[in-house]
């Protein structure tokens, strides 16, 4: 059992280490923090904390640094969330409440603002849904030989594809084609588009069977590519600003891990179901991330959880700032998607 005095000392050590990246000694704690304790008393308490696994002593340094266990106690019990500045809050609002109509755009912006405000690497995973359904299809003529096919799913993801036309079809035909597709396919997943439905569409169109099959192929590819997930990263190079990654080889290893989609999926989806999840060091279950921490949360449309966002940085990250920022972004996304759902 760790008593309150040890907790105060551990909190001071972590707060100091987050700022300086230097091992902390008892004299530093006595000088910088008004605890009413002598350096000798603090030194004894630090020795106890080390024996209990909350601190560790790197190399032969006289100072200590937090262990994974120490960070875990800190984020669970000792950390005080600080409020964002009004300028930071306005930055989040300006970016996320802009006139954006697709989840992909929103998550790109989300990844950008998270990286900008925390100075770590941000990740946005979209969308973690199976069986996307078609919400709207639009055909837009470009010229006599080409048109754009726009597919919008129920999750708000938009896919655009250019189609070469076999002949000049005219705007009236293309509009009729769009209307028939919307009438017959709205609310259906790819697996639900059966042969009778295709035959019904062909009958109403009258001709152009090849064009219909080509359009359906493109719709299928679009939906399948959505279900394969997309990952957005921002601020990957921010890790170079931290002394833990001043070694080029170590920094390259960090960056190469984040290039692997499967690794990112594992990182984010290994998280628990708390509103804000924090994984520290070896809790990430990926060896290359042993020296990193991940703060993540989910986002939803209605009651459907469709993806996760996260911030990755050194274990010595400013947890309070990251958690506060993540929570603010999460709340803004909740309102954005809530409005979207009822449009």
Describe the structure.
This protein is of the alpha+beta class and 343 residues long. The protein has twelve helices and ten strands. It folds into three domains: 4-78, Winged helix-like DNA-binding domain superfamily/Winged helix DNA-binding domain (Arc Repressor Mutant, subunit A, Orthogonal Bundle), CATH 1.10.10; 86-128 and 229-341, 2-Layer Sandwich (Beta-Lactamase), CATH 3.30.450; 134-227, 2-Layer Sandwich (Enolase-like, domain 1). The strands form three sheets. A five-stranded antiparallel β-sheet has the order 7-3-10-9-8, sandwiched between helices. The protein has a three-stranded antiparallel β-sheet with strand order 4-5-6, covered by helices on one side. It starts with a helix and ends with a helix.
Layout of helices and strands:
Blueprint (H helix, E strand, L loop, with lengths): L3 H17 L5 H7 L6 H13 L3 E2 L8 E2 L1 H11 L7 H11 L6 H16 L2 E6 L7 E8 L4 E8 L4 E7 L6 H15 L9 H11 L3 H19 L2 E5 L13 H10 L3 H9 L7 E4 L11 E10 L2 E11 L4 H23 L2
Helix pairs in contact: 1-3, 1-4, 2-3, 5-6, 5-12, 6-12, 7-8
Q: Any descriptors?
A:
343 residues, alpha+beta, Arc Repressor Mutant, subunit A, Beta-Lactamase, Enolase-like, domain 1, 3 domains, five-stranded antiparallel β-sheet, three-stranded antiparallel β-sheet, 12 helices, 10 strands
Gist of the model:
The protein is α+β, with helices and mostly antiparallel strands and 343 residues long. 47% of the residues lie in helices and 18% in strands.
